[in-house]
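Can't paste images in this forum, so I'm doing it all in text. The chain is below; anyone willing to post the predicted structure tokens underneath?
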Amino acid sequence: MQNKKIDHGAAFDWGCASEDYAKYRDIYPEEFYRRILELGLCLPGQKVLDLGTGTGVLPRNLYRHGARFIGADISENQIEQARRLSAQAGMEIEYIVAAAEELKLPEKSFDAITACQCFMYFDKSVVLPKIHAMLKDGGHFCILFMAWLPGESDIARHSEELVLKYNPAWTGGGMRRYTLGTPGWSKRLFNVANAETFDINVAFTRESWHGRIMACRGVGASSLPREKIRQFEQEHRAYLLSAPERFEIPHYATILNLKKKQA
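Text version of the structure:
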């Protein structure tokens, strides 16, 4: 995958990080899911499509609340992990290997469509009309995002510095809080039903934080040579020996809940 606005156009492939992604990126705290449910989304009787589902993190964690999920992702490796993890947990979740822009699903078939940690990768001019068409009347499109705050954590800041040392093209660092507004691209097809930004702390061990960084776009999913990734891994593990065995990393999260406009 390549996008001129991401990593200065350098190629990346989440499928290359699927094993680490499956093991280390199921990290959203319970509060994150609770806020989704409080918006009236992913509840019993609802049919939900999760775009850019990755290893099925969102469907798997919300499955117990009763919605029926379909997860779609461009990466076959990611979907393979999603199917494996869902089967191990006894969950009946359908998964599709497809880019969001290429999905062909019936119109007005979903109560909600979610996109967690992935909307920035989509071609809005193609995806938004598809989402609008696939949603039932009164349906919701929910865009979710969570990122660590390097300005408030020495561990996160140092980890970012090491990623940039080996991959200067990476643009995924330096995140700060921001206030959600009404995006211009939404006005023709959607109304903003809710817009939330909130702080949330995520607990890690040295191993799980290392895995989280290895599974980021700047390392495991990057186009870096294997030797560079190996060197990064060695240096990052050595640095983490100076950190406590357990710690929390401050994050901020955003939820933009859009309601389908009627034609």
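The two ends are 34 Å apart (CA to CA). Helices lie at 18-24, 30-38, 57-62, 76-88, 124-134, 154-166, 206-214, 226-240.
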